[in-house]
Write a structure and sequence with these properties.
By secondary structure, the chain is α+β, with helices and mostly antiparallel strands. Among the domains are: about 230 residues, no CATH class; about 60 residues, no CATH class; about 130 residues, Heat Shock Protein 90. The protein is built from 21 helices and nine strands. The strands form two sheets. Strands 5-6-7-9-8 form a five-stranded mixed beta sheet, with helices on one face. Strands 2-1-4-3 form a four-stranded antiparallel beta sheet. A hairpin with a 2-residue loop joins strand 1 and strand 2. Helix 3 runs parallel beside helix 5. The longest helix has about 70 residues. The protein starts with a helix and ends in a 6-residue tail after the last strand.
């Protein structure tokens, strides 16, 4: 008994506290030694099983107990070694080794029991009692360690948070209490074997039953809590952890299918009838093995296999199998009853033919449904585009178009992350995002009339899972539609910003005018009024002093006139009113040509404009004049040019071109206030300003200014 106590008490009593934190790496020698011991027990068990099979020829007992248990032992021992070798800090590796040990002891006990009758009576009695006692309780850790405790700790060997420690303690203490109760409770054993507990404590039935009931309650709390912890992790998981969680989800799907298939078998007779009991034992071991294998793959090598493909095909063919069985049963059973033709061969023939006819259509429909569940509507591009268009039509504000696009794309295609980026100050700025970005992102350009207006950024569904051609084709189509929507949204935002700037600029201009008039012109006129009163008195009393004061007043009046002229000139270039746009540009060109500097020491500026230039709106004249002024100033100071041409053309709009034969420059350079100013002046009127430049062809600035009043 003492040799078994470490497994049943200290190991499991400390399990709850050990799961709260990641243990230190287990020494490799200890791991290998542990695995060797477990496998040695397995080999001994298998040898006993072979002897039993050779003597008794009982193949059923050999398959359900003597062969399955050694296989489970070996698999869990190897899983534990692999997990600890690849993830030394993950406690799940230790749990797998403990599970393998429990399976080894269970198998050894079962082997002793089934072949014990072949041994001498004295040895057989001792070994049979020990084996019966072990088999009464050691199956508990073999069942609960790879399920309840693995669920609590999967996939990183840690609890979801410290708040889950009570659940871990409940599971650990519950396991210890149940093991102690089963190990010491007198009476019949809780096993497929018959007999009484050879080491039970007589007279302690009531306290031990209370211990078992308390342990069962704690185990129920721990088991339910472990499932809730697993569901919580799956809900919160992202990227890598989500891919790991899918493996247990897949196993859950397969387990459900196995239970669905096996329930009729087990309920066909009594649950403890030999056939049903054998099915339940095999099914339980297979389920536990599947959980262990899936957990190990998820921890160590989840990227080696495409779990989504497994889930996809399992769902499709499992549902197909159920439908085929249902169709066959309905035809053979229901129709046979109605026609009183049971047992006729033609019913089976009709059912088989019906299944063959319906197989492919049903499979195609199921495949589309499963694909939509896993990958969204990537195989239904028309529906996605229509849905996106409908949602965009329902957007109220331009800003809501961005979240509408990313949310629709992410939900329709089951993507973990979708974002829209727009160019700003030479960089990309994320303006709207849905989901959490992973490590692998791919961008699709959003264009409008050949111009890049943004980027659609997509996160892969899983690490190392590239988008397939159907995904890429749909995303390209979405990018085309989204490009127009983003462009329109940006235009609306720019229009609102422009209107705000106009209102702000107007108020600032009014404030400046008020300040100039109040602080400059107002005091000057008041001072002149006082001087005029003094002058009136001085003319009679002191004509010489009056003449001197008149000279001062003349100077003050001239200064006041200059102030008024300055204020007026800031409102609108006076040359436009005095000369007109073309003549004003010619005067400007002549002045700039004479004002050459080191960059352009002798600049020849030509004005190419039609003689019959029609009258232009005032705002268009000012914008054209300022754009040419800014463009020629840049040529003079930076271009190293010898010749510049200003060309004006009217064809529905006013087109203004400034060309020079200079050295050129980078048109996308940041911080060029002059270029920004020209673009803004054109945009304020609903036009555009395009700039192209190269060392070979010089620089061309082309501004298009609408002439219609309703566009200004």
């Amino acid at each position: 008994m003492r040799q078994s106590e470490p497994l049943s008490s200290s190991t499991f009593a400390g399990a709850a506290s050990e799961v709260a934190d990641v243990p230190s790496a287990v020494p490799a020698r200890r791991v290998r030694a542990w695995a060797i011991i477990v496998i040695a027990l397995m080999l001994l068990n298998l040898g006993l099983a072979v002897i039993y099979l050779a003597v008794t020829r009982d193949t059923t007992r050999f398959l359900t107990h003597q062969l399955l248990l050694p296989v489970s032992t070996t698999i869990f021992a190897l899983l534990g070694v692999v997990v600890i070798d690849h993830r030394p800090g993950n406690v799940i590796g230790r749990l797998f080794l403990l599970t393998g040990t429990a399976y080894a002891i269970t198998g050894l006990a079962a082997g002793i029991i089934v072949y014990g009758s072949l041994l001498p009576t004295a040895i057989s009695s001792i070994l049979m009692d020990l084996a019966l006692w072990l088999d009464n309780w050691v199956w508990m850790p073999a069942t609960l360690l790879p399920t309840t405790f693995v669920f609590l700790l999967f996939p990183d060997g840690r609890l979801p948070s410290p708040r889950w420690r009570p659940v871990a303690w409940a599971a650990g203490l519950g396991l210890v209490f149940v093991i102690l109760g089963l190990a010491l409770h007198p009476g019949p054993v809780e096993s497929w074997l018959t007999g009484s507990n050879p080491y039970g404590l007589g007279g302690m039935e009531a306290p031990l039953e209370a211990v078992i009931n308390l342990g069962s309650l704690l185990l129920m709390i721990g088991s339910v809590g472990s499932i809730l912890a697993l569901l919580l992790r799956f809900h919160r998981s992202r990227a890598t952890e989500r891919e790991q969680m899918k493996w247990l989800a897949y196993v859950g799907l397969v387990i459900f299918l196995l239970l669905f298939i096996s329930i009729p078998v087990m309920l066909g007779g009594g649950l403890y009838e030999p056939g049903a009991l054998d099915v339940s034992i095999v099914l339980t071991n297979v389920v536990i093995l599947m959980i262990g294998i899936a957990a190990a793959i998820a921890i160590v090598g989840y990227r080696l296999y495409d779990i989504d493909v497994l889930i996809n095909r399992t769902l499709v063919y499992a549902v197909m199998t159920g439908i085929i069985v249902l169709i066959y049963g309905l035809v053979v059973g229901a129709v046979g009853v109605l026609l009183e033709a049971q047992g006729n061969w033609w019913l089976a023939f009709v059912a088989t033919g019906l299944v063959a006819v319906l197989f492919q259509p049903i499979r195609n429909r199921l495949q589309r449904g499963v694909n939509r569940l896993l990958y969204g509507q990537r195989d239904e591009p028309f529906e996605v585009m229509v849905h996106l268009g409908q949602r965009l039509e329902q957007t109220i504000t331009p800003d809501s178009a961005y979240p509408t696009i990313v949310e629709t794309v992410a939900q329709a295609m089951r993507l973990p992350y979708v974002a829209i980026q727009i160019p700003q100050d030479g960089r990309r700025r994320t303006i709207s995002a849905y989901g959490i970005p992973g490590n692998e992102l791919v961008s699709y350009e959003l264009t409008h009339q050949g111009e890049i207006v943004g980027w659609l950024q997509i996160g892969h569904r899983a690490p190392d899972e590239a988008l397939n051609p159907a995904d890429k084709r749909l995303l390209r189509n979405i990018a085309r539609q989204a490009g127009t929507a983003v462009h329109n949204a940006q235009l609306t935002v720019d229009l609102q910003r422009s209107r705000q700037q106009i209102v702000t600029g107007r108020e600032e201009e009014r404030r400046r005018l008020r300040r100039d008039l109040h602080d400059g012109l107002g005091p000057s006129l008041a001072s002149l009024l006082l001087e005029a009163r003094v002058l009136r008195r001085m003319i009679r009393d002191d004509p010489a002093a009056a003449e001197s004061l008149a000279d001062e007043m003349q100077t003050d009046i001239r200064a006041t006139i200059d102030d008024v002229r300055r204020v007026v000139n800031e409102l609108r270039p006076p040359a436009l009113d005095d000369l007109g746009l073309v003549s004003a540009l010619q005067v400007m060109a002549a002045k700039l040509g004479r004002a050459g500097d080191q960059a352009s020491p002798s600049l020849n500026v030509q004005i190419d404009a039609p003689a019959d230039l029609p009258p232009l709106p005032a705002a268009v004249e000012v914008a054209a004049y300022r754009i040419v002024q800014e463009g020629l100033t840049n040529v003079l100071h930076h271009a190293q040019a010898r010749q510049a041409v200003v060309r004006l053309r009217v064809n529905g709009d006013l087109r203004v071109e400034i060309w020079d034969d200079g050295a050129g420059f980078q048109t996308r350079r940041e911080g060029s206030l002059g270029l920004i100013s020209m673009r803004e002046r054109a945009a304020e009127l609903g036009g555009r300003c395009e700039i192209s430049s190269s060392p070979q062809s010089g620089t061309l600035i082309a501004a298009t200014l609408p002439l219609h009043e309703d566009r200004t």
